[in-house]
């Protein structure tokens, strides 16, 4: 009974402090801070480990967004100081994981579970989806924020031809390595906290270490899926007036690649869905 009352209160307190801080530091706008408060509260309330995954993604990505801001301002046509993510971006980057975490909580209650298909293949697949979700989000954000600072010229993932920085679907070696690292951090967080919050047999506990390389693959894979979608279904063009790569066609815009089917939020959502699904299936077979 105490846990039922105390954990949601702790979740609301932590979430409110972080949301206010993020708004003041311009990591989130007002709508993003409100959405973030709701999402964070739900994550932490149903499981501290899920809350940790969200917070590692949020803090690491927010920090990297602010690195090299002046350089990014010159490249990014939609640059906002601090990032200033809105409620749509918050939900697209955490909504699916929130739903999955609530479902796991309904099935398992307050007991934190190891990945173990012999115990429950459904819960294992759902937790795998949550891991895949944040590996994709973190990997793609790390890839974008670090890749744009690389001195190497990006290459379009579909043709490998050199393209301007900021082109959707453009990749660099530094960006791809960053994506794998971003995924690994999510996996490491899941495993380390799991040793503290779960009760599993020794063999099952040791096997959880496989989450780390799987997460690296999910981070890299999610970033590659995002790049493929960006190169094909998201428009990129060079505006001769602004002297920047833009995401919408116009009279002063010369097309670089992609169709005007998905915007950046749509690309993120589809890549998260696919990476979550693939990681969920992989967890079911591996664990």
Could you explain the architecture of this structure?
- This protein is mostly helical and 287 residues long.
- Helices cover 68% and strands 6% of the residues.
- It contains ten helices and five strands; from the N terminus they run H-H-H-H-H-H-E-E-H-H-H-E-E-E-H.
- The strands form two sheets. The chain has a three-stranded antiparallel sheet with strand order 4-3-5. Strands 1-2 form a two-stranded antiparallel sheet.
- It is globular.
- 47% of the residues are buried.
- The model has no long low-confidence stretch (mean pLDDT 89).
| SSE string, helices as H and strands as E | HHHHHHEEHHHEEEH
Structural class of the helix and strand makeup? mainly alpha
Helical residue percent band: 55-70%
Number of helices: 10
* Share of β-strand residues: 5-15%
Give a short summary of the structure.
The protein is mostly helical. The protein has helices at 2-24, 30-46, 48-65, 69-75, 87-108, 117-147, 173-197, 202-207, 211-233, 264-286; strands at residues 155-156, 170-171, 236-239, 244-246, 253-257.
Helices and strands, with pairings:
Elements: H1 2-24, H2 30-46, H3 48-65, H4 69-75, H5 87-108, H6 117-147, E1 155-156, E2 170-171, H7 173-197, H8 202-207, H9 211-233, E3 236-239, E4 244-246, E5 253-257, H10 264-286
Helix pairs in contact: 1-2, 2-3, 2-5, 3-6, 3-7, 5-6, 5-10, 6-7, 6-9, 6-10, 7-9, 9-10
């Amino acid at each position: 009974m105490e846990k039922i009352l105390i954990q949601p209160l702790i979740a609301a307190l932590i979430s409110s402090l972080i949301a206010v801080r993020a708004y003041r530091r311009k990591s989130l706008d007002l709508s993003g801070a409100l959405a973030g408060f709701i999402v964070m509260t739900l994550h932490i309330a149903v499981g501290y480990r899920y809350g940790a995954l969200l917070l590692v993604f949020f803090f690491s990505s927010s920090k990297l967004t602010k690195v090299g801001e002046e350089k990014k301002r010159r490249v990014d046509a939609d640059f906002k100081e601090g990032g200033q993510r809105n409620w749509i971006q918050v939900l697209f980057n955490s909504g699916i994981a929130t739903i999955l975490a609530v479902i796991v909580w309904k099935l398992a209650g307050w007991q934190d579970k190891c990945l173990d298909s012999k115990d429950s293949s459904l819960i294992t697949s759902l937790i795998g989806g949550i891991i895949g979700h944040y590996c994709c989000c973190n990997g793609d954000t790390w890839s974008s924020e670090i890749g744009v600072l690389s001195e190497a010229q990006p290459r379009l993932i579909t043709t490998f031809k050199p393209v301007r920085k900021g082109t959707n679907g453009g990749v660099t070696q530094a960006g791809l390595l960053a994506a794998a690292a971003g995924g690994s951090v999510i996996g490491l967080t899941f495993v380390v906290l799991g040793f503290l919050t779960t009760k599993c047999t020794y063999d099952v506990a040791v096997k959880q270490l496989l989450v780390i390389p799987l997460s690296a693959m999910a981070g890299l894979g999610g970033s590659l899926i995002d790049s493929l979608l960006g190169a094909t279904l998201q428009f990129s063009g060079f505006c001769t007036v602004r002297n920047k790569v833009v995401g919408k066609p116009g009279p002063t815009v010369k097309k670089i690649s992609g169709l005007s089917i998905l915007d950046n939020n749509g690309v993120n959502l589809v890549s998260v869905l696919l990476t979550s699904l693939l990681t969920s299936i992989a967890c079911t077979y591996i664990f």
